[in-house]
Amino acid sequence: MSELWRLNLAEALIGLKKGDFTAQELTQASLDRLKAVEPKVKACLAVLEEMALAQAQALDKAGFDATAPLWGLPVTVKDVFCLKGAPTTAGSKELKGFHSVFEATVVQRLRKAGAIIIAKTNCDEFAMGSSTEFSAFGPTKNPWDLTRIPGGSSGGAAAAVVAGEGLGALGTDTGGSIRQPAGLCGCVGLKPTYGRISRYGVVAYGSSLDQPGPLAMTVKDCGRLLAAVAGPDEYDSTVSKIPLGDFVNPKPLKPTELTLGLPTELWPNDLQPEVAKVLTEAKSLLEKAGVKLVKLDLPSLKYAVATYYILATAEASTNLARYDGVRYGLRQEGAVDLDELYAKTRELGLGPEVRRRILLGTFVLSSGYYEAYYKKAAQIRRLIFADIQKALTACDFLLSPVSSLSAWPLGSFLDDPLTVYQMDLMTLPLNLYGGPGLTLGAGLGADNLPVGAQLWGRPFDEERLLAAGATLESLWPPLGRPTL
Ligand code: GLN
Question: Omega into 153 within 30° of 0, i.e. cis?
Fold first, then answer.
């Protein structure tokens, strides 16, 4: 089997340009790799083989196009992005048989940039979860240890990148769903600023928090993917017109030019010892190179998990009201009236975590509770915003762990959703704030599992965030890929 799947995006692009191999050869190599490892990893919900090979053939026929920044590069997209010619399930039975009649803006932009979409990746149902175990189609496995979770909700995307099923991926991040799986699988993941990338054609979870973003093996590759999909879109008025910046070749930052803030709330004493050990070593490598690390406090973060789980579930309960058995996907026949049709379809189609969230979200929005929960949470979100904003004036970026645990064994917390919600503390405050965040591998733990670290940036500061990420990447040991 050709080993072309091992290349990162930047390397593959050079090879394609020089004519060392064709788009068809590269796509075939990624598809062959996918087929070889997929029975173990289960990262994909749909493989778009025919479509991908036809597109690669058309590209080869037309010849290399230097103006297409992703020309001939095979990638995957999370199954929350609508794409014509393939089902979109968002990991839910509720969307069984749903074929979108239009495409997400980001999917169109990927294609326009010359990328070849080879598969749609697995995720927690409607992107609600941190492990992919809530996918209605079964969990994805962590490529480093197939008995463990890959993180979530974009666990399929992260596992696919690390396993070599495509050279890059697009996921979505509402409370950490790009950054946490990237950390647990050992690749790079970027959540852009809210309003950087169009959400048009993306199955919605929490509309004030959701943001698509790239995952890849290097920081540079994430920048290249971001550049191709970011920017204003007439179909999504929340996308900002603030100039993008140079994401492909950001102006480099020397270690001595970086001051990173370490919030005490995000560096708790009870980090898992393997995680703490890797991160302590990673921090000392930064300090040796001249990066300045400063401690600071973000007191309002103690409310962040509660705030997020009120706001995100409230938004989810309204967003998911559209799955009524009439307009999309599943429809349970035989109902005597409309109410029964709604109830039966939703009972059949929605899994336990999604139901829990709809119940919670409906509760916090109901009359009498709205003021006490939803309104209060919206106010506290402002406090969290102000706290993070202030912290980012005292330093260039914040540095935090991605998760207090490395990838845990499948099934560990299925009966304990609250513990998993609590673990989202490391990622979700950034979504409440709206700024960009970048996860990259800090090292491998004693148990040979990746440990990620995360940079938090100011809104619309992705260019500098990518530059800082590249600096850290050059100082930390490369994780490589697991043997599968
Ligand atoms: N784990 C978080 C949740 O379940 C984040 C999910 C996400 O970012 N989509 O809400």
Answer: yes
In which element (H, E) is residue 228 found?
helix 219-229
Distance 357 CA to ligand 1 centre (A): 11
* CATH number, position 482: 3.90.1300.10
- The rounded percent of the chain whose pLDDT value lies above 90 is 97
Among the listed residues 131, 154, 177, 300, the single catalytic one is 177
> Using a 6 Å cutoff on CB, does residue 313 contact ligand 1?
no
Q: Is the CB of 276 under 6 A from ligand 1?
A: no
- Specify the residue for token string 């290249």: 224
Q: Which of 389, 392, 395 is nearest to 433 (CA)?
A: 389
The overall pTM is greater than 0.85: yes
96 has pLDDT over 90: no
Q: Closest Cα partner for 171 from 388, 453, 385, 439?
A: 439
Give CA separation, 477 vs 216, 282, 388, 480, in Å. Answer: 17, 9, 29, 9
Is 241 among the residues known to form the active site? no
302 is known as an active-site residue: no
Range of the structural domain that residue 337 is part of? 1-484
Query: If you average pLDDT over residues 47-67, what whole number do you get?
Result: 98
pLDDT for position 333: 87
Quick one: pLDDT at residue 1? 58
How many domains does the structure of the chain reveal?
Answer: 1
Q: How far is the CA of 152 from the centre of ligand 1 (A)?
A: 7
CB 159 within 8 A of CB 28: no
Ligand 1 pocket, mutate which of 78, 125, 130, 317 (most atoms under 8 A from CB) = 130
Among residues 180, 69, 75, 84, the alpha carbon closest in space to that of 123 is found at 180
* Contact status, residue 56 vs residue 23, Cβ threshold 8 Å: yes
Give which of 375, 358, 309, 376 is closest to 174, Cα–Cα.
309
Six-digit token string for 78: 């999370």
Ligand 1 centroid from CA 1, angstroms: 37
144 C-alpha to center of ligand 1: Å? Answer: 22
- Taking the chain, what is the end-to-end CA distance rounded to the nearest angstrom? 14
Residue 349: closest CA among 126, 84, 87:
126
17 is an active site residue: no
The conformation of residue 450, written as its DSSP 8-state character, comes to: E
